[in-house]
Design brief:
Layout: E1 2-6, H1 16-31, E2 36-40, E3 55-57, H2 69-81, E4 85-88, E5 101-104, H3 109-112, H4 121-132, E6 138-141, H5 144-154, E7 161-163, E8 182-186, H6 195-206, E9 212-216, E10 232-236, H7 240-249, E11 252-255, H8 264-271, E12 276-279, H9 282-288, E13 293-295, H10 300-312, H11 318-328, H12 333-352
Parallel strand pairs: 1-2, 1-4, 2-3, 4-5, 5-6, 6-7, 8-9, 8-11, 9-10, 11-12, 12-13
Helix pairs in contact: 1-12, 6-10, 8-11
Length: 353
Amino acid sequence: MIVALDATPLTVPTGGIRRYTLELARALACGHPRDEYWLVSDQPFGVPENAPSNLRAADPPRTAVARKWWVWGLQQEMMRRRVEVFHGTDFSVPYLPLRPSVMTLHDLSPWLNAAWQPESARIRRRTPLLLRLGLATLVITPSEAIRRAAMDRFHLSADRVVAIALAASAHFQPAPAARGNFFLFVGTLEPRKNLPRLIEAWREVRRTHAVELVIAGRARADFPPIAEEPGLRMLGAVPESDLAALYSSALAVVYPSLYEGFGLPVLEAMQCGALVVTSRDPAIVEVSSDAAVHVDAADARELAQVLEEIAAAPEKFEDFRQRAIERARSFSWTRTAERTREVYAEARRIFRR
């Protein structure tokens, strides 16, 4: 099978959709060496390091006609590579249904709150039309929670939408690091991550416990700067190779997101054996189950109370760490890739009918 994957998410340095695209492409190529996988985009992107020989990157378009990407340039590229299936890894598929296509719908945040995704106006307009016209042969969501929400919002039939869980990279493992006296947040700094409420809750805990708050992640352009204050450390974007040690040494990893399609940092932290405190968002609960402490994301007082209990007696929460590791074993990129390739095969079968 020859598959093209939209590599546009690889044009940004960090983020969950970038991670999804990169890890999925690599796992597909490793698991199916007879297939060809092409990463395609109308923008320059970083080629994955140590990629299998059957995972290749196409050059960005060079002519004015080819730069009309979704109308013409992408079709030219796929004809040149004899592509059989297109995978839109970021809410999009081609406008002309010349071959089967699969769209990954990561969440419904662009439609739930425009302030969460101010740069997603094009997605808000285009994706519902693509779905309504049936241009996506099949749709993948990262959780059952998003699958049900997508079916309701876009009136999709159940046999057209498949939930396939993501996974944490294999290098996220418990690190032999000393336990630190800090709470940790990891993720893109953006409005729905609920950081002002996290900081408010941490300040309450800091009245009685000298615990720090460490925030690691790339700040999105629309995210207002966070003022410096004692005990608050802003690390910015942290190299992925350093994250396992951070997760492993934190007193707790706190991820009080208002809304998620999956919540990849939660699973990464769990795979490192971290104590995770997170929201009751349906997708996050689906991923973490009983291996994390769940709080109401809108209630800073409840969050502060849980964090204060952890700071006062962390040993009472030790069982969550082992449960987290056990729960994380349920996820792997190999399994994600296998199920995704099954969707490709099904999309081909449907398209030929």
